[in-house]
Amino acid sequence: MTLEILGITVLWTFLFGYVIVGSIDYGAGFFNAYSIMTKKEHVLSNIIQRYLSPVWEVTNVFFVFFFVGVVGFFPQTAYYFGTIFLIPGSIALLLLAVRGSYYAFETYVSRGHKGYAFMYGLSGLLIPASLSIVLTISEGGFVHIEDGNPVLDYWALFTSPLSWSIVVLSIVAVLYISAVFLTWYANKTGDRDATELMRKYALFWAGPLIITAGGIIYELRFHNPAHYEQLLGLWWMFALSFILWLATVWFLWKRTNYAAAVWLLVGQFAFAFYGYGISHFPYLLYPVLTVHEGFTNKAMAISLVIVFILGLALLIPSLYLLLKLFLFDKTYLKGKNKKE
Amino acid sequence: MLLEDPVFASRFLTLLTLSFHIIYATIGVGVPLMIMIAQWIGIRKNDEHYILMARRWARGFVVTVAVGVVTGTAIGLQLSLLWPRFMELAGQIIALPLFMEVFAFFFEAIFLGIYLYTWDRFEDQRKHLLLLIPVALGAGMSAFFITVVNSFMNTPHGFDIVDGQLTNANPILAMFNPAMPTKVAHVLATAYMTVAFMLAAIAAFKLLKGSGHVYHKKALNMTMKIGLIFAIAAAIIGDFSGKFLAVYQPEKLAAAEWHFETEEGAPLLLYGLLGDDNEVKGALKIPYALSILAFGHPMSEVIGLEEFPEEETPPLAVHYFFDLMVTIGVFMIFLALVYWIGTRWNWEFVKAKWYRWLIVLGGPLSFLAIEAGWWMAEVGRQPWILRGIMTVEEAATTSDYVGLMSILFVVLYIVLGIGTIVVLRRLFKNNPVEKELANAKGGDKA
Questions:
Q1: pLDDT tens, position by position, B386-406
Q2: ipTM (interface pTM)
Q3: How does strand B160-162 pair with strand B165-167?
Q4: Is A159 a domain residue?
């Protein structure tokens, strides 16, 4: 494996991590706001708050990790995407700021404030939408070079069915991932009502998810035929992803083994996400920037990989401790504080 | 409008984000150490007041962390959005400390989450202290690494440029650039100093407002002592920074000191106004002091601004920032020193109202000094983004709409700033120390 492939694999994996933990986080914020508006907050708010509180900051780091890592391994992306991404990037930042600060303001000070909860839920849905635009842009066709500098064609972007499909997919995926996870989590806390409600939401979003995902593959055929061809070459990954989706829905439907449902869901997204990523190879921004051209010098690459391994040696035990204390701690799950 | 120029607008937005972020970043670096110290003293003296102090500070800290995290994320991404050419070049040499900063931040975030949500899980206070160590360490490490990046921008190092192409990149050398030791040390010392004086200001304010509780007196004594130690450290490191500038960035030192002609036995100018034709009015002139500041010898030669081409000299306004920073620093050292000696020798006036008001004033003043110091350091290296290699004009984005985005961020920072104040006030107003201690004595720990 060459260093640039290692680099992009690491980054893609962290992006995948962000997609999963971020989705749980964003969706939870939305369901929280929705339950308040539909007067069901007594059912949901408790479990959502208990899950979110210790991890919201960690979720955010996954995102920072990704964009710092990209610039480190592929410095030229800073130039191309930085120039193009000013508006969607700034909007995502504004939404992240609103979300992060309102969450802290609400949780630690004025619990149950409707305005905060609403802003929190809404901004959570818009963040994946604004960030997913980068996926559309990387497909090519929206950027042209003017006086040696890349310029984004906003009109083409806003009128493209592909960009809207990706936006819709990102929102639906957020709601689906979050609902499946929270079904399992609510079940673990022993909260029957919350489990039933989240299960309902999970089943509701399962259909739209698979329809929009299929639709995107279809649209790529017209937008970027080369990419479409590569996707077809990896058909088995998407087929596996589909089977895992079926299995998840089946477990939810039968009300058994929610833990397995969560793992199947992770597997489903992993196959789709890596399948998409591999088929996009070797382009970072089609067709101007490839993984090979954009790669950093060798000395930097090696030192980044070393630091990455050392960093993981520090992170994995810490993350394990976090999960052990909150996600898998029986007394915490049931909402009691214990004394040791 | 000026904001229509992408270069100017990018500078404006970066200045705005950083000036706002460093308030929260300073708190983020300093408060964990103070919490840790309070927790440690609480355990050693078996005094519940200090344990409570740690918890109350931590509770307020969460609110500032939230804003610090989001503004930090903003500046992290804005670096690429507003300065794409710079990040493209710098990414090849300086990505290592940036990457390590994220790890330090990750580490801190995990343990902060654990500390905050295991409030009452452990009977043994030492376990809480153990959780605080990685938080304080992570906070210090992220300050360390991000300052390394900034010092690289001041003294680029660890690579060669041959025919416009970057070669021989050495990431480790780039990290250990000449500006690194003084910058990092000064940033850490002033952050700890500022936070100590901020917490002292809160304690003094509470005492002034009629709460005569011994808790506030303990808090005041402890933070003033810590503040004094770090303020002295900051001054000593500041002197080293002057010596560093004289060798590596003489134009910054010369601009900060309005030192135009190269001369031996150079005087130091304090205050004053700059008239037309660079004529200095009303300044306090201390003979030989600049030579001493620069090289430690009264007769040494200090390079003046005339040696540099005009398009490479920094704005002369940095002198005002320099004065502001140094004046506040010296004032705080005296304030804390007198307080410390005064409490030892039982001088009455350190408990007087006017003296406590001065301590209250010291909190915001210390933050002002932080801002002034950064403005001096950053404006003082104009027109360069990478000194001697890349100017800000070459680095800025070519994208339009930076002006529009700037306006959105101005609104955002106003909302976040007001939000923080409102929320923090509400957090502590309804739950004074007296109430919390009474609850704790009632048996059920809140």
A1: 777 787 777 777 777 888 888
A2: 0.82
A3: antiparallel
A4: yes
> What string of DSSP letters covers A42-89?
HHHHHHHHHHHHHHHHHHHHHHHHHHHHHHHH-HHHHHHHHHHTHHHH
- pLDDT (tens digit per residue) in B123-180: 777 888 888 999 999 999 999 999 999 998 888 888 887 777 777 788 888 888 888 8
Q: Say whether residue B409 is in contact with chain A using an 8 A CB cutoff.
A: yes
CA A157 remoteness from chain centre = 21
Question: Position A308: which residue type?
Answer: F
Query: How far apart (Å, rounded) are the C-alpha atoms in residues B446 and B435?
Result: 10
Measure the CA–CA gap between A266 and A246, rounded to whole angstroms.
Answer: 13
Nearest to A89 among B81, B95, B121 (CB): B81
pLDDT of B330 reads 92
Q: Which residue of A has its CA nearest to B66?
A: A101
Compare CB distances from B110 to A80, A86, A319 and report the shortest one's residue: A319
> E strands, A261-339, where?
283-285, 289-290
* The dihedral sign for the CA sequence B334, B340, B341, B347: positive
pLDDT (tens digit per residue) in B70-112:
898 889 888 888 888 888 888 888 888 988 888 888 888 888 8
DSSP symbol at B386: E
Tell whether B397 lies on the interface with A, counting CB pairs under 8 A.
yes
Residue A338 covered by a domain: no
Q: State whether B92 and A296 contact (CB < 8 Å).
A: yes
Average pLDDT, chain B: 85
Give Cβ neighbours of residue B151 (< 8 Å, ≥ 6 apart): B177, B179, B180, B183, B184
In whole angstroms, give the CA distance from residue B278 to residue B257: 12
A283 three-state secondary structure: strand
Out of A64, A78, A314, closest to residue B88 by CB: A78
Q: Residue B371 carries which side chain, given as an amino acid letter? A: E
As a residue count, chain A comes to 340
DSSP A136-156: HHHTSSSEEEETTEEEE-HHH
The pTM score is 0.87
Token digits of residue B124: 């043994």
CA distance A179 to B176: 48
C-alpha B161/C-alpha B380 separation (Å) is 24
DSSP collapsed to 3 states, A318-338:
HHHHHHHHHCCCHHHHCCCCC
Identify the domain containing residue A122 by its residue range.
3-333
Give the residue on B whose Cα is nearest the Cα of A82: B81
- Sequence-ordered list of residues with C-beta below 8 angstroms from that of A325, at least 6 positions apart, any chain: A54, A332, B114, B117, B118
The CA distance from B197 to B187, in Å, is 15
pLDDT 10s digits, B168-187: 788 888 888 888 899 999 99
Token reading at B285: 């002139």
Q: What's the total number of domains in chain A?
A: 1
Strands (E), B395-444: none
In this complex, do B84 and A318 lie within 8 Å of one another by their Cβ atoms?
no
What are B324's two structure tokens? 């502001």
User: What is the SS3 string spanning B61-113?
Assistant: HHHHHHHHHHHHHHHHHHHHHHCHHHHHHHHHHHHHHHHHHHHHHHHHHHHHH
Q: Are B255 and B245 in contact (CB under 8 A)?
A: no
In a domain, A125, yes or no: yes
3-state helix, strand, coil in chain B (%, to 5): 75, 5, 20
Phi/psi at A152 (nearest 5 deg)?
-90, 135
B60 CB neighbour count, 10 Å cutoff: 19
